[in-house]
Specification:
- By secondary structure, the protein is of the alpha/beta class.
- The chain has a seven-stranded parallel beta sheet.
- The protein has helices spanning 3-6, 23-33, 39-59, 77-80, 120-130, 143-149, 160-180, 199-204, 212-226, 259-264, 311-321, 349-367, and strands spanning 64-65, 84-90, 96-97, 100-101, 105-114, 135-141, 151-152, 185-190, 235-240, 270-274, 295-301, 330-334.
- It is 37% helix and 17% strand.
- It has one domain: Alpha-Beta Barrel (TIM Barrel).
Length: 368
């Protein structure tokens, strides 16, 4: 793998990262929770299933591969609980999606946030060891997710700014550690921006004592500062999501209200954007893109159901996107992962791989 190859990412046919957990893995995790197998036995099964997953991604035509988040229950809580001062715990109720609620788990900040080490660095090392000539992409939640999802125990921090000061330094530490292990393609996943896509979401910011301007300033600061010290040959993209749990979602709304910040004020190399249905609005907010080196990955293929999108319609939407962004800066992917939590979306593994091949085929027709 060369730096030149990594610098072509995000790839014209790319993906968000999580994949449906195979039945063997689900069974093993349940056995581990019931103390029927050891952690070593579970890790061995995870390793074997991740190896198969990487082979399947390459076979399907992808140039970047992930571990499918196979070792995680949640796309965000598992990672965030790896920082010093952050704990995983059982909550009173789960997160509310449209018509369904997640399991009752969460994270809390009990001491000052810090980075001394992080157990997921080993997860990346294994992924890289089996990636072969493909680019090993690692996915982590945005620092904003801790701020918006964690319970902060009283007395730990006196202000949001103080919390972000520590959080940013901790993220800089783990990003550098991942780089030292060979990570050159990092993806930051963030659902917090979706709070600012609707008037309802903006109203909810008042619970944190924020208005829209304050929220955008905090969120943009977190993203830009955590990646400000990344080495030049480390590419960082961000995936902006409206929620993805068992094929449901949390919120709707166009990027329009905050488009100047997202498309003109973030220093990432690429943005993975949801555009798979009407909930995301049109492409007009993309007019605020003011860089020729910012790549936009259009999430036009849904991961929420198995039916394949009409190829001509997808191509027509990509053509529509060129009204605002040159075709050279556009890419294609599913709008989100297939399994943001271990429960997974409501489609089969066969349908999942059909979606991936669909992305690769369409991207090949357009860009190759």
């Amino acid at each position: 793998m060369t730096n030149q190859l990594v610098l072509k990412a995000p790839f014209k046919a790319d993906h968000v990262g999580s994949f449906l957990r195979p039945e063997r893995l689900k069974k093993a995790r349940l056995q581990y929770e019931n103390e029927e197998i050891t952690s070593e036995q579970l890790t061995q099964i995870e390793n074997e299933e991740i190896t198969r997953l990487v082979e399947k991604q390459i076979e399907s035509g992808l140039q970047s591969v992930t571990d499918g988040e196979y070792r995680r229950k949640w796309w965000h809580f598992d990672f965030l609980s790896g920082f010093d001062g952050v704990e995983f715990y059982e909550t009173d109720k789960g997160l509310s999606f449209k018509g369904v609620q997640t399991r009752a788990q969460g994270i809390k900040v009990t001491e000052k946030i810090g980075f001394s080490t992080h157990y997921m660095i080993e997860h990346f090392k294994f992924l890289k060891s089996v990636a072969g000539d493909a680019v090993a992409k690692f996915t982590i939640p945005s620092p904003n997710m801790l701020y918006y999802r964690a319970t902060i125990e009283e007395g730990v921090y006196n202000s949001d700014e103080e919390l972000f000061d520590d959080l940013i330094v901790a993220y800089q530490g783990v990003i550098q550690a991942l780089y030292e292990e060979g990570c050159r393609y990092l993806q930051i996943d963030d659902t917090s921006w979706a709070t600012t896509f609707s008037e309802e979401g903006i109203a909810s910011l008042k619970e944190k004592g924020l208005n829209l301007e304050q929220a955008l300033k905090l969120s943009a600061r977190a993203i830009n500062e955590v990646i400000s010290k990344r080495p030049k040959d480390m590419l960082v993209t961000m995936h902006i999501c409206r929620g993805n749990f068992r094929s449901t979602y949390i919120t709707s709304g166009s990027y329009e209200l905050v488009s100047e910040t997202i498309f003109g004020g973030l220093n990432v190399d690429g943005l993975f954007l949801e555009f798979d249905d009407d909930r995301s609005g049109g492409f007009e907010p993309l007019r605020h893109i003011n860089r020729t080196d910012l790549y936009i990955v259009l999430g036009l293929i849904t991961s929420k159901h198995g039916a394949l999108e009409d190829i001509d319609q997808v191509k027509a939407r990509i053509e529509e996107g060129t009204k605002y962004v040159p075709i050279e800066q556009l890419c294609l992917s599913p709008q989100c992962g297939f399994s943001s939590t271990e429960e997974g979306n409501l489609l089969t593994e066969e349908e999942q791989w059909g979606k991936i091949r669909h992305v690769v085929q369409i991207a090949g027709d357009i860009w190759m």
